[in-house]
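User: My advisor, Dr. K., asked me to get a structural model of this assembly before our group meeting. I'm new to this, so sorry if the format is off. These are the inputs:
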Amino acid sequence: MNAALGSAGVTLGLAASVLGVLALAAGLRRRRTASALGTGVMEAEGLLRLGRSFAWLVLAGAVLATVAMEIALVTSDFSLAYVAANGSRSTPLLYTVASLWSALEGSIILWALVLSGFLVALVHRFADQASDPLVAWATLTMLVVSAFFFALMLGPADPFRTVAGPVPLDGPGPNPLLQNHPLMAVHPPMLYLGYVGFTVPFAFAVAALVTGRVGEGWLAATRRWTLLAWGFLTAGIVLGAWWSYEVLGWGGFWAWDPVENASFLPWLTGTAYLHSVMVQQRRGMLRVWNLSLLAATFCLTILGTFLTRSGVLDSVHSFTESPIGPWLLSLFGVTVAVVLGLIGWRGDRLRAPGSIDSPVSREGAFLANNVVFAAFAFVVLLGTVFPLLVEALNDERVAVGTPYFNRMTMPLGMVLLFLMAVAPALPWRKASGELLRTRLQWPAWAGVVTVVAAVAAGARGLAPLVAFGLGAFAAAAAGRQLVLAVRASRQRGGSVVAGLVGRANGGMVVHLGVVVVAVAFAAASSYASSDELRLEPGQTAAVAGHSVTYLGMNPPTDDGQKTTFAARVQVDGGQVYEPALNQFPNATQTIGTPSVRTGVRDDVYLTLVATPEQPDDPAVIGVIIQPLVVWLWIGGGVMALGTLLAAWPGERKRRPTQPTSGPGARAADPSPEPPAELPAPAGMA
Amino acid sequence: MRRWLPWVLLGVVLAGALAVGASGDTAPRSNAERSADLAADLRCPTCRGQSVLDSNAPAAAAIRTEIARRVEAGQSDDEIVAYLDGRFGESLRLTPPGTGLAALVWVLPVAGLVAAAAGVAMAFRRWRMAPAPTVSADDRRRVRRALGQEP
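Assistant: The format is fine. Below is the predicted structure of the whole assembly, which you can bring to the meeting.
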């Protein structure tokens, strides 16, 4: 029943996608001939409208598939192979619902659902431009992508495959690690909203290339879509780090694991795009580069899914065993080829007439930003796939781990912090030294004072100190822009909030969030101290200024799904925490559940390493003290908030012809600016 | 000269603070710190993507104990890594070696960054060389009209 319902949904989705593509293609073709002949315009528009309406059917198919799978999961319909492999009667409801994305086939359903949601949103948003070829081509591109994912579900990743032989009475449930924390219910959907959301700007990029309208129109049309996708991806990544910190029990939040890198790669190229797109909107330049960045972002989501889902990372030779690998790799290859072909074909229209006057300018800073982000993405990509390359070429095994990524990306991160500090103060076109000295003076002192204060407080080590200083420099620069913007808004009679919305101001709030994350990251990874304590019941030990007292073990509890052995550990003579070890009936290894005392200054992270043989024997308690960890999550929240502010429609503060740059109107900017930032051509002065 | 004074002061204060801050780094590492640093750079052989330091797997715990024993016995880092490589038949190091094919993972990003920087520098050179576009009197009038300086 569920299998039939789900398969019907998938079939409906695929059929609607294909029919939509055909109708749109026919409409676009008819429209071209109609404009030449002068007749048949009505038919062309009818076809385009028809093609668009298939989007709703695609969504209906995806919803049907999702509902069928959820019903099957919740009602323990073990006749479905997916439910038999990932469900169990004893799993709590929340994790049963979340099992939809705990394995490959189900996560493709989620992918299709999110994609068709974006598709319908796009069709709805651009309803009044239905006959615009740009919109039609974007819709068509989205439909092609959705056809691919529905085809995956009919072919190599069929979620509604039924079990061969007798229907099992119960299943093993999801991987124990995936049913340990409620964040599992939030983090993957967030990540998918971001991942899949980038399909929309990518579709418009393809449409711009096909229609030859490579100007700035499609950029303005997709600005909020891109921001939204980026915001979701950011939130998804931060929530993923939080989940791994709360669940995995090694005290870390980022391991440069291929799965993490797969989500981080599109984030890097997407972030580069969000910055360089401003150069195109302002100056009409970097067209090819922006198109390439969007295409790269989309391709990296596919490549990331390929890397993490095909089993290729275990060994290059294993990927052909999973049927989905070749499919995803083909989509990746086809996308790269199509985009390169289109860019080559439209090469003449993509050349921009302008030029960047000076490297010391806003556009120069964006250019530097893009070089660094591209290098960052290259390092992460190379480090992730390098073991595969070496194995394929030389049949030798090389591990590329955290030390490599840290060493290579740390300097890039520092440069990015520095750019974040300097760039907001730079005007477009050209900056004078006097202007920079005035604008950067106080932010720079904020950075220096922070370094001095950190050294005085006992912080040691060059790398974290430089990170703190640059972080404060960047935060002060962003803060300065926000103060100016709010002041300008007040002077115009607006509210404080009105000074915080819009791209530039929201972007500065995002920058503040990035600084918070960067400083927390530097502090937590540089000043962690850890110890394994063998404690008798009642015994106390000191770790990095905190006292830890082992009180004893709780009696083991059995909730029908797992047996839990929890220790009672008192931190600093106050509250009692209960790190635990869980024994799942179907797993050989025990899964630890860390317990964390979260604080504004530092976290005390407790794990139970070994349970005592007898109740009065000593237990082994792992203790990790890391400063500022909680600020990683707070910073992530600030970034999400800033994204919302940036997407919020701000008031128009200046006409497009006005040459002023940056947030805040010129009148409110107290720093002396040269009267004309545009070098006045001779004869006009 | 007066204008630069605050910046010179800033540079001096910063350099002083960083010098003090970085000097605290050079204290000799304790045995426990050496063991932890070594374990952080070794792949846990039975897990996926975790270091010997981070993993709770029995194999990782065994390697940690072995490292601690050899550090106490006064062996150098290289000796300990060589011993472990020999025992596992392959390198456990998470830092790829700087020789052979694997060195590419270090060289390629640096080469790429240098090439990109050179490309940007060349672009700026070309832009500077490019002749300024000629602006006719008609164009100027249009601009002034658009800016509202002329009816």
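One thing worth pointing out at the meeting: Confidence is low (pLDDT under 50) at residues 654-685 of chain A.

User: Perfect, thanks a lot.
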